[in-house]
Design goal:
flat; 496 residues; 8 helices; alpha+beta
Length: 496
Amino acid sequence: MYSLPTSCMILFFIFYRFHQILCASSEKEIGRCDALFQCGDVTAGFPFSGRNRPEVCGHPLLRLHCINNTTSLIISNQEFYVLKINKTSNTLTLARPDLLGSFCSSTFTKATLPPEMFELSPTYKSVNVFYVCDPFISYPSSSKCPEIGPISLSEKPEYHNTCRESFTINLPTSFLPEEKELNMTHLENALREGFEVKVNIDENACQECLSSHALCGFDQTFPSGVQCGPIYSPDADDIHRRCSASFSCGDQKDLMYPFWIPGREECGHPDFKLECNSSFAELRISSVKFRILEVNHESHFIRLSRSDYISNLCPLNPVNAPFEENVIPFAPGTEMLTIYYDCRAELSQSVSTYVGELSCHNDVRSYYVTRNLSSPLLIGVRGLINDFKGSCRRNVTIPASRPALDTLERTPTPDNLKKALEEGFELTFNEDCSLCIISGGACGYTQLSSRFVCYCEGWDHTDICDHLFWGNISCLHVSFARTTPFEKFCQFQIMF
């Protein structure tokens, strides 16, 4: 039988009552839709979700992402930067990141906005971009790109018979594409400013929710329907039980934080939602999919590879995807492989051990660099790499394992390059999560303050479960017959 001194019992009671208040507050905050999405200068509520706004709070097509204080939206597998959200007019100002640099070096892809959701504002118009055109025909509002040849802009589809490729961009109505010579600087500036669309959502239904002091969200099964009513806020024990259990997705088992699937929103980081099918599990970062190849809990690593590079060295429209290392860091031995596509430069075969050539098309050269671009080993070819930036249409940086890249450097063949990409790269488990699990907690994420949280039985904490620190009071843990969190106290020591 154990007993505590009276002074310790008083301190214990104060701590216990204070903790109850914190827990009650935390339970009310979890899953609520009154929180706002915030990223850089962008703030959003209904009908958007993302970060501290759970998916149920917004339309499935309006999930916002935040990377390096830049807000983005994935629409029809195309990434758009969100430059501005005007709540009063219910409009967005969007810009395509792949069209923000030199237009001739941009990625030419077709991107369609679902008309039932997005309506182009009256001050903007759609303009056709025609390329791979007949070089012997003179086109109005045209210019010549070094690698593509003539391109032409028109509001009408009249050139579709003489140009093999085309896509659509959105420009201000003041932009006149029918001029004889296309002003590329004017075009590039207009694309950087973005374009405005109106979001077609029934705001009246949401206002009725708010006026009745309820929360406004969406029915995820029938996305067009607004949900009005209290949204279930699970208590800490519910979340602890749910997040303590692993789950399966595709061919992967025993998955946990930072990954999640619908129904486990509190158990994973918002950017690591998985898409499951019968063969594999994938996650989407920006507009790029990554496939989970292996999860090893004993060795504490996760191995991923880019889905578009599996069995394919030359995907149609490769793009960069920044990785959130603060959520789940790269394992030691991971380096960045950079591929430069559609280059004008022509190199000798022995220019460097760290630079190789890749053949994607018969008449176009592409190259790869097997070291981080900041590596001192590249000093001798720094000028060449700078030339790549100006002479190649696009470049993509992809994580890869150092051993696979060493093999590629020794034997620079397409098969070894393909193997390095298909084998993928490793990530280490989140250190905070490892400590949380050891202490008996379950890893998760709080939408309210956008941070990692350790769910314990009956309460949550930012770090671990079995050691509590409050002011200058320290608690040392010993075993008792019963092991609820507050029956683990054995001693209080006043620190002077």
